[in-house]
Amino acid sequence: MDAASWDQIFEKTIAGMYLGEIAQRALLNMAEEGDLFCGSVPQKPSMPFVIGTPDLCAMCQDNTDDLQTVGSTLYDVIGASSPCLKFQPPNQVESNLNSRKIVLEVCDTIVKRSGRLAGAGIVRILQKLVEDSKGAIFGKRTVVAMEGGLYESYPQYRKYLKRGC
Questions:
Q1: Which pLDDT score is estimated for 160?
Q2: pLDDT, mean of residues 70-95
């Protein structure tokens, strides 16, 4: 998703392969421009594809009060530790509960956007089929097959996709 890779841009905004990278760039920007990680900017997110879509989905499904999964995922992938640790390594990025809530909201927003755009894309393809067939397939059953880890392993994505239709 660099400046030279504008090919298949719609796919890159919705495909599971790229959602972690989109979240990573948004979070890095928020850390640089604001106070997301208590004023620290993690170094790992400046490398491409540090946050994977499985990480994104795991964080989105965190139902714990202190967002423990979000915190542990942030620690594992970008080195952001919890402020409750007694020993903080030098140059350690801190992830407090407020930061984890913001990260969760960013991740969910990106997944929601992907699902809705994918749903809208499916609807447009079906509309185009009807237009091109001059109505010959109107009212006939059409099957749309889906595959992929995002659709299969993250139930909320299915709901977002249906809302986009």
A1: 92
A2: 63
Strand partners, 111: none
pTM over 0.70, yes/no: yes
CB 149 within 8 A of CB 106: no
Exposure pattern of 41-60 as b/e (b: 16+ CB <10 Å)?
ebeebeeeebbbbebbbbbb
CA 161 – CA 117 distance, rounded (Å): 7
- 8 Å CB contact between 49 and 21: yes
Mean pLDDT, range 9-31, rounded to an integer: 82
Q: Token digits for 137?
A: 């397939």
Q: How many helices (H) and strands (E) does the chain have?
A: 7, 2
Tell me how far CA of residue 99 lies from CA of 26, 34, 76, 83, in angstroms.
Answer: 13, 11, 16, 11
pLDDT of 155 > 60? The answer is yes
**What are phi and psi for residue 146, nearest 5 degrees?**
-125, 145
What is the Cα–Cα distance from 67 to 153, expressed in whole angstroms?
Answer: 20
**CA distances from residue 10 to 48, 82, 90 in whole angstroms, order as listed:** 19, 36, 41
